[in-house]
Design goal:
The structure holds two protein chains of two kinds. By secondary structure, chain A is an alpha+beta fold. Chain A has helices at about 5-15, 70-85, 110-115, 115-130, 190-205, 220-235, 240-245, 305-310, 345-350, 400-405, and strands spanning about 20-35, 40-55, 60-65, 135-150, 155-170, 175-185, 215-220, 265, 290, 295, 335, 355-365, 370-385, 390, 395-400, 410, 415-420, 430-435, 440-450. Chain B contains ten helices and 24 strands. Chain B has helices at about 1-15, 70-90, 120-135, 205-210, 210-225, 240-255, 260, 330-340, 370-375, 425-430; strands spanning about 20-35, 40-55, 60-65, 105-110, 140-155, 160-180, 185-190, 195-200, 230, 235-240, 290-295, 315-320, 325, 345, 355, 360-365, 380-390, 400-410, 415-420, 420-425, 435, 445-455, 460-465, 470-475. Classes of the chains: A alpha+beta, B alpha+beta.
Chain lengths: ~450, ~475
């Protein structure tokens, strides 16, 4: 039995109420963060977090603790009971998940789990050595997480996962290039090659010039489209947003909203992504086809939103831990289908004249209902002229409609890339977005910023 | 807990650390959220652990462990030393720390009524009451939240520092989401968007927010926005309310004046800064009306403390005076780099994270007069209220911010309501267009709990005090 499942079952036994479920997160991770080609914030974390939800006379209360001895679990149980007793009856509570078989998924690699702080520091050093002539900024990290959910219904599921990421920004005062890689197998990553990609990109960004804001035809690398897709998904491919009318898909399910080449799923079972067997209520993960050939089909659901819909929907296995469920269900395994372009060069040919975007910065959702997102480009923005990527341009302020971008797709690469989307706040929960590079005829730039570089 | 911090220091030094500090943190946090007349969540979270930071051969190492035991303290220390040693072997230069006197003493937030001890029933009742006041036919979603936190933090360093601090925070907020029959969506919030506002004090802070008092206005304005005209695009005069000014100060003054960003250590994630070390004392940041101060001694501020997380004492320091850059937010390490004692802004969001240079309480100092005085000198412009969206580039220059609502200003008076306003600018040019800040009577402090930075990520709790301010010739309404 895993440490996480043992903790979960002990916490269930400690619970005081008519029913209870417990989610447990156990983390051991190392983070070799570097700047100016030297490790400067090396961080090792161990933690165990137990979230206990109790049901008492139809009232719900939650408590979380990382004190995992018997006293700590008993105290958490008392606090959860107090919280429940303080609350009115919750008519929207869908009940606790009954035991159900969860899929066998990959996602755990012994070699990755065995990495030591020395290994993590050496991988950071490999990255740094891969970008001679530039200062290298970013990190190498690896970690092991265990997730378990247990319940008074007899539910008892657990999963161990590994993850590793290398993120690199090669930069000087007047140049910067970006590359990253992520996998649940450390052996898939070549830190020096990733840094080399960033350095090669940086080399081409010197002498960036201004460009007149307008709606461009554009090529977006996987790093860029991944972030846009996740922001859109967080606000629109979420059943709570759908039901409350905040989603772009509200009232539009079944309509053809995007280009036929745009197909998006959430697939926790895909071994190329960060596989997940169940959500934080212990519901088995389902593959959810959200957009098929441009037609809006569905969003992801948890037990609460499925009950709220009242039309036969069931949870698709996308619940957060109970205290965070106000965000609604979240698609943590986004997957965008590839297309027919052999490489980004072919996408540039389809664009003809436009811009090439490597990476985005500091996105903000201006209007979630219309899918309008603002942000900046950075670390590798170029002109596309006569079908070729040519000279660098300064960072660009975009305020663009994601639906219009996806309706105006000109092509997608066959190859898809897993892009890490975790910034490692709070408990470690690795997730990524599997995307191709794309070309679109609708990327709206509304202003210009500073040039590349530090 | 002091024993554990001492044992961690001893273990780290014995293992070869040239410098070591340790923090034991115990935190309990409650959160109550109601939605559409029902309880959305009632949670009560506690976390505790020890974080040990070391310098070995001039290289940093850090490790956190949840076990508040001798074994946990020793393990954290030894792991931090091992990680530092692995990094040091490839380091190009040594970290130096600016000297500070070893701190000793205690700090405690001023509290009349401990917010964690306020019964959950009372918190839930307040939320439900406030929600009730927002209800309108057009308002489809009403939400109310309150939070309470209590934290004890013990710090010790190998230089002899030993301090114990007791922090207490609480806060709350309300939101109304209106949806029209044809699917348009608008929202209004109070006292602040994105989780309300918090203060470092007792439950009396939440009571004084007046969530239920403001609820009818919030609901009415959300409903009215559904039929309001769209904010037009153009270059105009804007008067920005105190709540949105908080965001403006935070993003375009706070982050760029963090000295770790200036030296590039956040380049890969949060970004750098348009400022350079040599700009101190000479760079024209804005107009003569711009005075910004970092003040971790401000009563009720979320960034108020006795000492920061490396033992530097709280002190008020100017950042911008008369529009000229005169200060940075700094650590001991970055103070040594710039050659000036600017430290006192190192903060970690928990025992499991390394301290970073963070904002404390960063204020735009008040000018003179009232909001009405600001409006009176506007022939044609906009009054922008309550943040809705925000984005700024990696050097903190080019920004675009959206607010929940705008009102026309015509011949010095507020006119009709407008929806979906945004404005954009470039930081020093924008602040150069500041031509008035309202006076002390309009000055309000807001506490935010969602400031992200660092890898692994950390959330900082910071406060900003501002008055409404007026800017000329600003690009408004870039939305396509």
């Amino acid at each position: 039995m895993s440490r996480a499942l043992d903790l979960a079952e002990r916490a269930v036994k400690a619970a005081e109420g008519d029913g209870a479920d417990v989610s447990v997160h156990v983390e051991s991770s190392g983070f070799a963060r570097f700047a100016a080609s030297a490790v400067h914030q090396p961080t090792l974390i161990r933690d165990e977090t137990v979230t206990l939800r109790v049901v008492r006379d139809g009232r719900i209360g939650c408590a979380t603790t990382n004190r995992t001895d018997d006293d700590g679990l008993a105290a958490a149980a008392r606090r959860a009971a107090e919280a429940a007793d303080s609350a009115p009856v919750d008519p929207s509570f869908p009940g606790l998940q009954e035991p159900a078989p969860v899929p066998d998924v990959e996602g755990y690699d012994e070699a990755t789990a065995a990495l030591t702080p020395k290994d993590q520091a050496e991988s950071a050093a490999e990255a740094i050595a891969g970008a001679p002539g530039f200062g290298l900024y970013g990190y190498y990290t690896s970690g092991v997480t265990e997730i378990a959910v247990a319940s008074t219904t007899g539910l008892a599921v657990s999963q161990s996962a590994t993850d590793t990421s290398v993120l690199t920004l090669a930069a000087s005062d007047d140049s910067s290039g970006y590359a990253e890689a992520t996998s649940w197998r450390a052996g898939d990553l070549d830190p020096a090659a990733v840094a080399g990609e960033a350095a090669e990109k940086a080399n081409r960004t010197r002498g960036a010039t201004q460009i007149e804001p307008q709606t461009f035809r554009a090529v977006l690398e996987p790093y860029a489209i991944s972030e846009l897709l996740f922001y859109f998904a967080f606000t629109s491919l979420n059943a709570l947003a759908l039901l409350e009318g905040r989603s772009y898909l509200s009232g539009r399910l079944g309509e053809k909203l995007f280009d036929e080449s745009f197909t998006v799923a959430d697939d926790g079972l895909d071994p190329v992504n960060y596989p997940k067997a169940f959500d934080m209520e212990g519901v088995p993960k389902q593959r959810v086809r959200m957009v098929e050939e441009g037609v809006a089909r569905d969003v992801v659901w948890d037990r609460r939103t499925a009950k709220q819909a009242g039309d036969g929907h069931v949870s698709t296995g996308h619940a957060l831990a109970p205290p965070a469920q106000a965000f609604g269900p979240i698609p943590f395994n986004l997957s965008m289908a590839g297309g027919d372009a052999a490489a980004v060069d072919e996408l540039a040919e389809r664009v003809g004249d436009g811009i090439y975007v490597t990476r985005l910065h500091y996105l903000g959702v201006v209007d979630p209902r219309e899918g309008i997102i603002t942000g900046m480009t950075r670390d590798g923005t170029f002109r596309i002229e006569d079908g070729e990527v040519t000279t660098p341009v300064v960072n660009l302020r975009f305020t663009t409609s994601f639906p219009a971008l996806a309706a105006g797709l000109l092509g997608l690469t066959k190859a898809v890339t897993l892009v890490n989307r975790s910034d490692f706040y709070d408990e470690r929960y690795p997730f990524g977005t599997l995307v191709p590079a794309v070309a679109t005829d609708a990327f709206t730039v509304v202003g210009t910023g500073s040039g590349p570089g530090l | 807990m002091q024993d554990l911090t001492e044992k961690a220091i001893d273990a780290a030094v014995a293992a070869g650390a040239g410098y070591a500090d340790s923090r034991v943190v115990r935190r309990r946090a409650q959160h109550v959220a109601t939605k559409n007349g029902e309880v959305d969540s009632v949670s009560d979270a506690e976390t505790e652990g020890i974080g040990v930071r070391v310098l070995v051969d001039g290289a940093w190492g850090f490790a956190g462990d949840p076990r508040l035991s001798e074994e946990g303290a020793r393990d954290a220390a030894l792991r931090a030393v091992a990680f530092a040693r692995a990094s040091a072997s490839r380091a190009r230069s040594r970290v130096d720390l600016a000297a500070i006197p070893p701190a000793t003493g205690e700090y405690a937030a001023p509290v009349e009524r401990d917010p964690v001890d306020v019964p959950l029933e009372e918190k839930i009742a307040l939320c439900l009451r406030a929600e009730e006041g927002m209800r309108r036919p057009e308002v489809k979603i009403t939400e109310a939240t309150v939070r309470a936190m209590r934290e004890e933090r013990v710090f010790r360093s190998s230089e002899g520092a030993s301090v114990t601090q007791h922090f207490v925070e609480c806060g709350g907020g309300i939101d109304a989401l209106a949806v029209s029959d044809d699917g348009r969506v608008q929202n209004r919030s109070y006292p602040s968007a994105h989780g309300g506002s918090s203060g470092q004090t007792g439950w009396e802070f939440v009571e004084e927010l007046g969530l239920d008092r403001e609820a009818p206005r919030v609901g009415e304005e959300a409903a009215a926005l559904l039929t309001a005209d769209a904010c037009p695009s153009g270059v105009t005069t804007i008067v920005v309310d105190a709540e949105q000014m908080v965001l403006q100060v935070h993003e375009s003054v706070g982050h760029p004046t963090e000295l770790d960003r200036v030296y590039g250590t956040e380049a890969a994630y949060a970004g750098t800064s348009f400022l350079k070390p040599d700009d101190l004392g000479s760079l024209r940041y804005g107009s003569e009306h711009m005075h910004v101060t970092a003040d971790p001694t401000t009563a009720l501020g979320l960034g108020t403390f006795g000492w920061d997380d490396e033992g530097a004492p709280a002190r008020r320091q100017p950042v911008v005076e008369g529009g000229v850059l005169t200060g940075y937010l700094a650590s001991r390490e970055t103070s040594a780099l710039i050659g000036r004692d600017l430290g006192g802004s190192m903060r970690a969001d928990s025992w499991s994270r390394m301290p970073l240079v963070r904002m404390t309480n960063l204020h735009l100092e008040p000018g003179a007069g009232s909001l009405e005085n600001l409006l009176a000198d506007v022939d044609d412009g906009l009054y922008l209220c309550t943040n809705k969206s925000w984005s700024i580039d990696d050097k903190r220059l080019n920004f675009q911010f959206g607010t929940q609502v705008a009102w026309e200003i015509k011949k010095g008076k507020l006119g009709k309501m407008l929806r979906d306003p945004t404005y954009m600018g470039v930081t020093p040019e924008f602040w150069g267009r500041l031509d008035a800040v309202a006076g002390p009577d309009e000055w309000t402090m807001y506490g935010l709990t969602n400031c992200g930075k660092g890898q692994p990520g950390q959330h900082a709790h910071v406060s900003h005090g501002t008055s409404p301010a007026r800017f000329r010739d600003v690009q408004v309404g870039v939305r396509q």
